[in-house]
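SAMPLE LOG
Freezer: B-3
Tube label: C17
Construct: single chain, 685 aa
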Amino acid sequence: MVTPKRYTITAALPYTNGPIHIGHLAGVYVPSDIYARYLRLQGKDVAFICGSDEHGVAISMKAKKEGISPQEVIDKYHNIIKQSFVDFGITFDNYSRTSAKIHHDTASEFFKKLFKDGKFIEEVTEQLYDPKADQFLADRFVTGTCPKCGHDEAYGDQCEKCGSSLNATDLINPKSTISGAVPILKKTKHWFLPLENYEDFLKQWILVDHKKDWKPNVYGQVKSWIDDGLRPRAVTRDLDWGIPVPVEGAEGKVLYVWFDAPIGYISSTKEWAAREGKDWEPYWKSNDTKLVHFIGKDNIVFHCVIFPAMLKAEGSYILPENVPANEFLNLEGNKLSTSKNWAVWLHEYLEDFPGQQDVLRYTLTATAPETKDNDFTWKDFQARNNNELVAIFGNFINRVAVLTHKYYEGHVPQPSELREIDTQTLNEMKAYPAVIGSSIERYRFREAQGELMNLARLGNKYLADEEPWKTIKTDEERTKTVMYVALQIASALAVLSEPFIPFTSRKLKTILNYNAESWGTLKPLETGHQIGESALLFSKIEDEQIQQQLDKLEATKASNKTEKTTTEKPKLMPQKETIQFDDFTKLDMRVGTIIEAEKMPKADKLLVLKVDTGLDVRTVVSGIAESFIPEEIIGKQVTILINLAPRKLRGVESQGMILMTENAEGKLVFLNPDVDGVGNGMTIN
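STRUCTURE (predicted):
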């Protein structure tokens, strides 16, 4: 599409079982807002759409846990989320919710259209049923032992220890989380979307047509799904919370949340269009509309395989031009976890750092997990504010405004003859809209923001080189020219910063008394123009503020550890099959000492060890590189199985096995003697 007539931008619907945290912001909402703001500055017709995702089993679970109704859960978090977005400056054109009547009607009509056109298949399957609670059990209402790794608290859809995808019927010793009863199998009828019918379409549309313009992480995940073969996926389920299935014989069933949630983009657009007096259909059904989905990597399959298949099956909708999904953001080296409260919550940040929305926006863009997982740390947050926003951007603007008032009573001076450095600087400045815009249009928001800061650096360097505070004493005409050029750079920053740090952009426009809103052509500050009073755009963040945030996380960590040790039994593997004494005596286990250790080239998990077994020194290849660095285990006494048949790993022959276990935190621990006087080669019986 060369020149879209309009843009429909969607941001993943946040799930209303908790507030918004920085992982959501970095993955979805900051980049989508940058993109929408940029397009508006170009005068484009934009519908930036979002809303709360309020159906599904997680809402029911939250309600049962808190002893309130599902409606109370979604009302509580919908209001927190919506207000947080407003306070943070996310400029949705419409923020709706999937509990709204317009969404129920839209999703129901969508289902009925596909049902009428024969796009579904109907199947009777056996699913787990709680005889005590008298209801079918959604996957997350069933726990049991994982058949893959033995973890005894796996859910019916996934084992969170080994990461395996499961069906509830795969679990060993399943039980209902509602009543504790052992579930039984009971037949139930559901409707399925046969995704395999859309394989050829998806292969052509994504793997061929979008091979060069979609992000590698998105393309790769979609290709993996398609190569694995697509299978029918249920679009209904037995649950009492959701949109009732609108066909005869479906009493007690609702639309599966993955089916109804993406339709929320359409219903939210309808809601916006009705309010604005617009026709919603061109934003979803016209070929001159560019549709872009902003999501996190956990939503790739839904937005790149399942939702497009739904739209294709319906027949009248356009498909997304791009789905620029981000990877995950970690916090202080650990995965974000809402259940463990290991997060920076947006509404709490806004309370702790009032008026500093842009510092978080800037940091999250600078560390955005665009192609791989990245890490947010409070020290980096502080450094980016103090060393970049304050020292580079803020410092330049402050010097320009202060000197303009000091020398010219706040009026833009009349430049005299431009020197080569002046012309060169102005030409560089004029190139930045295209440079930054190109990066934004390719969804490289980190790169785009970096170029914005380069413009601020250009201004600082220009002032430092031309030294108007010195030339004012020797060459007033030259000083006028320098200040004129510096003021043009300041005005360019006022416009170009708006997508990234919009609160700062607004402050800067007030300081400059400047109202330009056009991205492409930078409107100059005319000679004689009166600027406003100088004001600091950013303030330094002190160590004490950062320490408070680190202390809060440490308190969370301590609380989780205490809760884990006091309320959670150890995660133990079930007993293996019985062996005879003779089987055990075949194992020759000895005490040994690691005397050398180094990483295996091109292997993230493997270390090559030299172990003194008392009998000899032998090589052992061990998969412990993610838990230990070579230097820390040299001299470590270990237990080694020495009569294991040798095996080549990456071309290195491994002549034994080091015995390990895991502690309660999942960290590998060596099995070694805990008393002195136990020498290498001594047997373990």
